[in-house]
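Chapter review: from sequence to fold.
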Amino acid sequence: MTGMMKTAVMEAIGKIKIEERPIPKPKSGEVLVKIGYVGICGSDVHYFETGAIGDFIVKPPFVLGHEAAGTIVALGEGVTALKVGDRVAMEPGKTCGHCEFCRTGKYNLCPDVEFFATPPYDGVFQEYVAYDASMCFLLPDNVSLMEGALIEPLAVGFHAANQGGAHIGQKAVVFGSGCIGLMSLLALKAEGVTEVYVVDMIEKRLEKALALGASAVIDSSKEDAVKRIAELAGGYGVDLAIDTAGVDATANQAIRMVKPGGTIVMVGYSKSGKVNLDMSVALNKEITFRTVFRYRHIYPMAIAAVASGRVNLKDVVTNKFRLDEIQEAMERSVSDKVNIVKGVIEVAGE
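The token string follows.
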């Protein structure tokens, strides 16, 4: 397939334009995917707004976007497991396959991963992408391309739940009801956690959490969240806390909310990258701390959960934009974080 395609290129901090680039050709082992939808991730917004996340610094021109799904339109040499016309979700990190972490199954920790929209690797805010066939996962007929694009953040939520050992009969609390907080809520519910409470300070996001199945929501700007969780959970507190906010206040509230022997999973990054913990309380309760970096071996189970109806992704999306509206989409994602819980870019649609 030859020709030109539209690509959203970040020219500078806060500035993206649409330009024409050649449609890529799939190499051996790759497929060419016509992109249907791409989710707008918090990392995309942060790169757009500041140009960096920690040690990862954008050097324009750069293409953002890593949550994608689309339709295969061409095959590279040697690809037999997929065919033209297949609809796929793309796991956005291609790893080396031979380091200690890849060989032991923890490929998300590969130091040589090539991850979409993580400098220096371009992302997928564009019409076509040539990508490794082994990282493209077939979508069942009843899973839309928009849902396919949201498998990526859902995978983070499932990895967080799995890191915390989530299972039926437990009670859990999630801090933050942005996209990853909501995905964590959905994953916990799908894995059978009996009661899931959500804590935030933004009313509209808490309303979204309640609509997606939270057992109760708490506005920590209006009431004592620790006291309220004690009332809701009863006994010694919750079994599991997932912190997607990543700030001192939420981390230390989590320490006080989990029961002795409970588990806290840290997902969110603070702006400083540092969190001060009340370790005396944590030590006395013998709390287990786990952390999350992306995910591993999650896409098949996440897709199956959506296909079976156990996870409702469609209602997570609050805003849709066309690729030509990318500048507006990113600006609004920066300025209107209260109302835009999850935005998606419609490239080719379904």
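Two observations follow directly from the output. The chain has two domains: 4-150+317-346, 157-291. The first strand starts at residue 4 and ends at 12.
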